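Fig. S4 source data, part A: sequence.
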Amino acid sequence: MSSRNLAQLMTLAGAASILGSIAIWATRGGTGSTPEERAHGERFGIFVGLWAPTFFILANRYNAHALREE
């Protein structure tokens, strides 16, 4: 797989992480029957959202590598 394709994949993964975080936080964070279940859903949504910067950094690195290859 080329560096350009990996950069695009990492960018999509970062965007999916943000959207997934919002979806998890909205659905699991507000639907629990106890405060502990709601708190767990909110924390899980935040945890998934924290992956986005890592994916975007990797996308940047792969993109820079692809530019050096050209």
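Fig. S4 source data, part B ends here. The longest helix spans residues 3-28.
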